[in-house]
Design brief:
- The protein is of the alpha/beta class.
- The relative contact order is 0.17.
- It is built from 20 helices and 15 strands.
- The termini are far apart.
- The protein has two domains: about 120 residues, Arc Repressor Mutant, subunit A (Orthogonal Bundle), CATH 1.10.10.920; about 270 residues, Transcription Regulator spoIIAA (2-Layer Sandwich), CATH 3.30.750.
- Helix content is about 45%, strand content about 15%.
- Helix 1 crosses helix 19, helix 7 packs parallel to helix 9 and helix 10 packs parallel to helix 11.
- The strands form three sheets. Strands 1, 2, 3, 4, 5, 6, 7, 8 and 9 form a nine-stranded mixed beta sheet that branches. A three-stranded antiparallel beta sheet has the order 10-11-12, covered by helices on one side. It has a three-stranded antiparallel beta sheet with strand order 13-15-14.
- Helix 5 links the parallel strand 2 and strand 3.
């Protein structure tokens, strides 16, 4: 692999005990969303925009990659929820910007097709996400799928996955039928919560529950047999009773899969509420979910956030499944999308600004719409792969060795010894997997496998927080 030269910051070594403690302290940050603090931790690997250098590096990184995943981002929502961290444009622009945006998407498809000779590459997973990708006209979704079929080969049996809201599914059953007719196999519906007081506090429509059964019926009538419900937990003022009611409601909808997303406050309108939520509260909510879903026939190994009631089916989209298990590279198209080759990580224009201006400008100039591009060191790439692997609560040992040419134990001898000795992880036939206790301390465990620069960043944040707490204690005294 053509890894970048390792930065001095990524040549450091830290005691596992320190990093584990920092991960637990920074439990709202130490998760599968990696890298952390990339403006500093990834700075040495940033590729210059000078004279189109970023375009050349981005394209060359896909040489020799025959199989990949595809993600297409749709940045439109009926409204921007206060807990949303994703790239969503002003909802007032939805109608006026929709067709223009899809025109730009198709041009980006064509540019990448020429840059990487995409017709010789095979897609093993394809997600259309957002935002709310079911919001635009089904005809525009058809344009995206047709563009993917022109530009890539589809792996036999590969599923396409899309997301909807209850309101869209309930109010527009014809759109559900149209989406299924396009060859989309899996649909995910964001229920999130049903606790009335919390819905009101978050600015969600308190009558959402009224749409869910009707939405479920429309989705089933359209022919979808792979139906996932998304739920969220970890909000300030989220009660155990309210969470239990949400879980029961999701079970009653009888989907094949239920995915639990822990609230990640960074980049949201309610980021200031993070300090109100303790790790103990998070674990109480997660433990309740595990018990209730398991009793209803939904299973997941410790630390995995998608529960499935179908034996042998992990419940996640093909796009995510192959990324998690095999570390398959993925190409992200659209506003603010992230892409990961074996040696590069990039973000499309709009990831920071959340508007179409720069994305549109770059495409109209005939350039790949890149905002930031990083040529990764091996250490940085390892941190990314393992962070994503924790979506399933485990590291596939063979996939790691195949990707990096070394074993996990060779790279992380002290960290592996630490998690084994403390009973946080254990070996299966093919993985190093979280135990039940490890899942309760997952933020500390994930941090152990970050690149050293990111570990240092976590330590600095923890030291700063400790200083603030000591100062607060002195003032109180």
């Amino acid at each position: 692999m053509n890894w970048n030269i390792t930065s001095p910051a990524d040549r450091q070594h830290f005691a596992p005990e320190e990093i584990f403690a920092a991960g637990l302290t920074q439990h709202h940050l130490a998760n599968t969303a990696y890298p952390i603090g990339h403006l500093t931790t990834m700075r040495p690997y940033r590729v210059t925009r000078r004279a189109g250098e970023d375009d050349r590096v981005a394209a060359a990184a896909w040489n020799g990659i025959d199989e990949l995943c595809l993600y297409v981002h749709v940045p439109f929502c009926e409204k921007r929820c206060s807990f949303c961290e994703y790239t969503v444009v002003d909802p007032h622009q939805n109608q006026s910007a929709e067709d223009t945006y899809y025109d730009l998407l198709l041009r980006e498809f064509e540019m990448w097709g020429r840059a990487i000779d995409s017709q010789q590459k095979t897609l093993s997973g394809f997600d259309i996400g957002g935002g709310t990708p079911a919001l635009p006209k089904a005809a525009n979704t058809a344009r995206v799928i047709e563009a993917a079929q022109r530009q890539f080969r589809f792996k036999p049996g590969m599923q396409i996955s899309i997301e909807t809201t209850p309101r869209i599914a309930a109010n527009d059953p014809q759109k559900m039928r149209d989406l299924h007719a396009l060859g989309i196999d899996r649909i995910s519906m964001g229920v999130q919560i049903i606790q009335p007081s919390l819905l009101k506090a978050l600015g969600r429509n308190a009558s959402t529950v009224d749409f869910n059964l009707k939405a479920r019926d429309a989705i089933r009538a359209a022919g979808f047999e792979k139906f996932n419900i998304d739920l969220m937990y970890g909000f300030a003022r989220q009660s155990l009773s309210g969470w239990e009611a949400t879980l029961q409601h999701a079970i009653d909808l009888n989907p094949e899969y239920i995915t639990l997303y822990r609230m990640r406050y960074k980049g949201t309108q309610i980021a200031g509420q993070a300090a109100q939520v303790t790790r103990e509260q998070i674990n109480a909510l997660a433990d309740l979910a595990k018990a209730k879903l398991s009793a209803a026939g939904y299973t997941a190994n410790a630390g995995k956030n998608t529960y499935s009631r179908i034996a042998g089916d992990p419940g996640t989209s093909d796009y995510l499944t192959t990324r998690v298990i095999d570390g398959t590279p993925y190409l992200g198209l659209g506003l603010g999308s992230q892409s990961l080759s074996h040696v590069t990580l990039s973000y499309n224009a709009g990831a920071a600004s959340k508007n179409l201006t720069l994305y549109q400008q770059k495409i109209e100039e005939g350039r790949l719409p890149l905002q930031d591009l990083y040529h990764l060191s091996r250490e940085a790439a390892m941190g990314k792969m393992i962070s994503v692997a924790f979506y399933f609560g485990e590291i596939n040992l063979a996939s790691f060795q195949r990707k990096f040419g070394v074993t996990v134990e060779e790279v992380f001898p002290h960290e592996v010894a630490f998690v084994l000795q403390r009973g946080l992880m254990e070996y299966t036939d093919s993985t190093l997997r979280l135990t039940v206790e490890g899942a309760r301390q997952i933020n500390g465990v994930i941090a152990l496998f970050y690149a050293p620069a990111v570990k240092e960043h976590l330590l600095q944040l923890s030291l700063a927080d400790s200083g603030i707490e000591r100062q607060r204690d002195r003032v109180m005294a």
